[in-house]
Amino acid sequence: MVPTKGVFTTRQMAEIARRHLPRAIFDFVEGGAGSEIALARNRARFEEIALLPQALRDCSAATSVVTIFGRRYAAPFGVAPMGFADLIRPGTDRALARAARERNIPYVLSTAATTSIETIRDIAQDNLWFQLYPGSDEATAAALIDRALKAGVTTLVVTVDIPVPAKRVRDLANGLAIPLRPSLRTILDVGRHPAWLMRALFGTRLGMANFIDNRGAMSGLKHAEFVSRQLSCPALDWSRIEGIRKAWPHHLVIKGILNPEDARTAARLGANGIVVSNHGGRQLDAAPAPIEVLPAIREACGDALTIILDSGVRTGDDIARSLARGADFVLMGRPFLFAVAALGLSDGPKAIIDILRDEFMNTLIHLGCPDPAELDDSFLWPRRTGAGILSPRQEGNR
Ligand SMILES: Cc1cc2nc3c(=O)[nH]c(=O)nc-3n(C[C@H](O)[C@H](O)[C@H](O)COP(=O)(O)O)c2cc1C
After folding, report:
1. Whole-model pTM?
2. 82 CB near ligand 1 (under 6 Å)
3. Which are the contacts of 202, defined by CB distance < 8 A and separation ≥ 6?
4. For residue 270, is it within any domain?
5. Contact present, 179 and 225 (Cβ < 8 Å)
6. What are the residues whose beta carbons fall under 8 Å from the beta carbon of 226, sequence distance 6 or more?
7. Which pLDDT tens digit goes with each residue over 381-393?
8. At 262, which CATH number?
């Protein structure tokens, strides 16, 4: 067990991160789109879900181990793809990848990471998944797919929920948008965080490592143009997914699905999995919380897809809630970055994984459920039928 210096929850990690990071960086990670309604909704919907224990079931051999995409992982959660993670501290991508390998959970490297696929592959080995923004330039996407294949990646996560850049008010107010025009308040505040500033000044320079070609040039595109053209693309349609399916011989996961019809389409086009996600409330502020649409999605696609959920998962209870409502696995984003900010590169990532895994085991055993694969709607109160929720009164009348 890693020393956690009196920190026991993801919430505490976030509170410490708030103090350690310049406000603009904390806001960039924590903030959501628009009025941050989706962000709040993600948490609120989790908290409404009660889990119903089954008494006197032998859990002496309970396990958190799960198998997805033909591989066993120590727990049903992994690290979501996050661009510019090294803004927290230089080395964040590497530290998270190392802990994911050591603790045996997946680490999903973002297209917009500032560390290259090859560097992370050497650290995470087959715990590495790669996330692709297909973007507007098919040749750039094809080159990334090729690079991921050559690096030995076997799970490709294609993110489809940023047709346009989001309106993130905190970033606008802090001047943390492209092109970068930090406000005076942001500059003064960075000065109040000398430890962060020194690391940023003397650490590795951040660049789009997965777009740097062999000669070290950035594919001829200027940074701002690149971000808007290659990461978001309003013209994206299902034909691109068909193309990627043909080009990618291994597991293919579509990230950013909320609509049951889209889940069906993903299955029909040969995807192996989906991530039911609203991008952590960072894109469409009016989007539903993934946890609320999850049962309808499971009903729509049955066992045809591996269903992964993210957005708002913060505790072992939340992981169990997600599995009971139909997910096979979850991803988490912000908690991993806050763990690095709170406890550092070496302890933070391992500590957060241990905390979440222990919480999840504790929940499983309280529920009388010895195996995550057995978590289903019989552990929900009120029990749901299909996509709907029965009230306790209706449930009693059944
Ligand atoms: C700082 C930050 C950067 C992100 N960058 C990406 C990205 O590059 N690609 C992507 O598919 N999702 C990205 N996401 C979304 C996450 O993958 C994930 O969907 C979301 O964080 C889950 O919500 P949670 O943070 O509440 O756990 C990012 C999220 C954050 C917080």
Report:
1. 0.94
2. yes
3. none
4. yes
5. no
6. 208, 211, 218, 219
7. 998 645 554 434 3
8. 3.20.20.70
- 391 CA → ligand 1 middle, Å: 33
What are the pLDDT digits (tens) for 47-103? 999 999 999 999 999 999 999 999 999 999 999 999 999 999 999 999 999 999 999
Q: Count structural domains, the chain.
A: 1
Q: Let me know if residue 377 belongs to a domain.
A: yes
C-alpha 4/C-alpha 353 separation (Å) is 11
Closest to 337 measured CA to CA, from 349, 329, 353 = 349
pLDDT above 90: residue 266 = yes
User: Does 203 score more than 90 pLDDT?
Assistant: no
Segment 207-236 shows an average pLDDT of: 68
Range of the domain at 221: 10-397
Residues known to be catalytic: 279
* Token pair of 212 as six digits: 């740097």
Calculate the average pLDDT of the chain: 92
Q: Cis ω on the peptide bond leading into residue 179 (within 30° of 0)?
A: yes
CA separation for the pair 101, 75 (Å, rounded): 12
Say if ligand 1 is within 6 A of residue 315 CB.
Answer: no
